[in-house]
Amino acid sequence: MPRQAASSRTSNGAAPAAPAAARSAPQKAMDKLGLVRDIDLALHLPLRYEDETRLTRLCDARDGETVQVEGTVRESRIEARGRRQLLIRLGDGSGEVLLRFLNFYGSQQKSWGPGVRLRVRGELRHGFFGREMVHPTVRIVQDDTPLAAALTPVYPTAAGLPQTYLRKAVAAGLARAPLDEVIPAALLPRTWPSLREALDFLHHPSPEVSLAALEDHSHPAWQRLKFEELLAQQVSQLRARAERAHLRAPSLRARPQGLLDRLMAVLPFQLTGAQQRVVAEIATDLSLARPMHRLLQGDVGSGKTVVAALAAAVAMDAGWQCALMAPTEILAEQHFRKLVGWLEPLGVKVAWLTGSLKPKMKREQMAAVASGEAQLVVGTHAVIQDQVEFAKLGLALIDEQHRFGVAQRLQLRRKLESAELEPHLLMMSATPIPRTLAMTYLADLEVSTIDELPPGRTPIVTKVFADSRRDEVIERIRDEVARGRQVYWVCPLIDETEASDQAADEAAGRASDRRPPLDLSNVTQTHQELGETLQGFGVGLLHGRLPAAEKAEVMAQFAANTLSVLVATTVIEVGVDVPNASLMVIEHAERFGLSQLHQLRGRVGRGAVASVCVLLYGSPLSDSGKQRLKAMVETTDGFEIARRDLEIRGPGEFMGARQSGAALLRFADLQEDQALIARARQVAEVMLREHPQAAQRHAARWLGAKSEYLKA
Ligand code: ADP
Ligand code: MG
Predict the structure, then answer these.
(1) Residue 650 CB neighbour total at 10 angstroms
(2) Which GO biological process entries does UniProt record here (predicted)?
């Protein structure tokens, strides 16, 4: 199916300022679809086509076929028995067909009377009274009314917007849209049509064309269009990168025997080779007088936090402040404790900022940040809210960056850009981004990869069980906790996305406990069940709706091993780090996405003891459910998981609306069109170098108002 079908993906240019009342229903529907500028209309491509270029004789048509026939009305009557309907008997000399209308106007019956010539199009069926068509499209014709010269486009549309209206609007938009060639011809394959030709063709293909080539998008007209789109994206990303190179940032260098060295000295472990390498990459970036824009990716448990801490040490040693932002309060709190533990003995003051702080406390923390007394601030996205002012922010660290929404990332950008010298930015993610995605979405990002786990870890063994074996699993838990180990039990809960919920709550000035109730019965029941069966061991309960203080308390008890079992929702998905936990049970594992399962599993296998992850499934498994669980059993490598996830879900969903905002591609497909992506990348580089104005025009034509999002 063509990818522009989802209306939410269509772009929106600057909407004209016409008052809503003055706009007709179809116009409003067009606005909603983002069909505002002529170019938007020209780029609104058909979902499929109807062939109205020829007539089929009734004697040649087969049942089940969709055909266009022309004939004379022999009889027209209204059937009153049962459901009222209009029945028309049409003959074309070779046979007859009954047209059946369940909804009709009186005027239609009148004008479609006996003797009138009709051209109708619909699916032939074998009905009770012989052959029939239900609700065909109907046109009154004369003997010499010409047939359509081109295939008739069928566009993605919305309620209140009839195809005929949309067809006219698109045809008019297409005729008016400025589609002059912007890309120098030398940079394009000679076999491709021009943009104007490609669009004219895709809207109105000639009847000889192979419908297959149109539908699978392999036709040169499609290639041209997809290339245009990819080129716009590459240009805008490369430009963002070039612009960044002109921005000024503080040059941050660690002093010999300074904070960095002192922190290294107190760490309870040796850095892995991969950690040393990425620390060096980051340190080099920080020493430059332009802002770093780097993604640190590494599988769950690869040790990204300490790398962040070391980067922060460099910045603070150079006399600048750092901010560390995490998507959930639990994770932020854990970072806070860890960093306070490492850094306060070295004389660093760490501030704490989240949405759930009491106003007085929040004011104090903000004052410490504004005065520069706190060199480091840790928290949720509250850290980047407008009221928060930094004395001298030099480095922003974003943990699990893919969990932040587009709005939050734009807010961060604005915050960073408002500084006199732009701060450096380091983003961290345990969801490795496959190469094609990295090339298209993150072309303006440097990437550092930790490709090695700290030594001494025993690989996690993953097992899949039907829920009917729950009792066995609980016995296994008993063994584990009896040996002093700890266990997570995770239950699914629909849509418990803390980061975005919290953002919405805080934006609306709501306290988080006033959010609508969620169905927590699964997690509370399991908590009760395990509490009763595992008498003598502490069983805790953790979910997003608990007050922040209680969440923190439960986490602290689990970290201290006062609780042996933690029954939780996915609030523990990201980053939670309790090395003594050696068993993870995921209930209804079939309901989780693959990367989420991998993240959850990453909560165990963090210490030296051999760890096990048990995936329980309840309902019969769907195909993709099976594939996900199988992938989990077969590999613990995050990069392999990401690759399979991309394969199972496709790139659109993989990135998710949250990840990519409106920047999702409409026409190109990241998997199918890898060769086009590579070509677009090359051409973008040449155009920016040799034809900068054309490059600019091209990006503006394609992206319009969307280009903002590409920066997020
Ligand atoms: P992630 O990359 O998933 O954020 P963390 O930073 O939470 O991983 O680190 C996982 C665990 O590994 C933590 O307990 C951390 O202290 C520990 N760790 C990190 N680096 C090393 C290392 N080089 N040697 C031993 N343990 C390490
Ligand atoms: Mg982490």
Answers:
(1) 14
(2) DNA recombination; DNA repair
Kindly indicate the confidence band of residue 490, based on its pLDDT and cuts at 50, 70 and 90.
very high
306 lines ligand 1 (CB under 6 A): yes
DSSP conformation class of 280 = H
Are the beta carbons of 238 and 443 closer than 8 angstroms?
yes
CA 606 → CA 402, 417, 458, 484, 560, distances in Å?
22, 38, 9, 16, 15
Domain extent listing, the chain: 6-46+159-209, 54-140, 259-450, 460-635
Q: What CATH architecture is 460-635?
A: 3-Layer(aba) Sandwich (3.40)
Quick check: CB of 579 below 6 Å from ligand 1?
Answer: yes
Instruction: Please state the pTM of the whole predicted model.
Output: 0.67
Token pair in block for residue 60: 């040649």
* Structural class in CATH, domain 54-140: mainly beta
- Answer yes or no: is pLDDT of 158 > 90: no
Nearest CA to ligand 1 atom 16: 303
Minimum mean pLDDT among 61-70, 219-228, 428-437: which range? 428-437
Quick one: CA torsion of 41, 47, 52, 53, rounded to 10 degrees? Answer: 80
How remote is the CA of residue 651 from the centroid of ligand 1, in Å? Answer: 30
Q: Give the residue among 89, 108, 107 at the shortest CA–CA distance from 98.
A: 89
pLDDT of 20 higher than 80: no
Among the listed residues 425, 397, 399, the one whose alpha carbon sits nearest the alpha carbon of residue 331: 399
Say how many Å lie between the CA of residue 607 and the centre of ligand 1: 9
Find out if CATH 3.40.50.300 is the number for domain 259-450.
Answer: yes
In angstroms, what is the span from residue 375 Cα to ligand 1's centroid? 23
Contacts of 331 (CB under 8 A, 6+ apart): 399, 400, 574, 575, 576
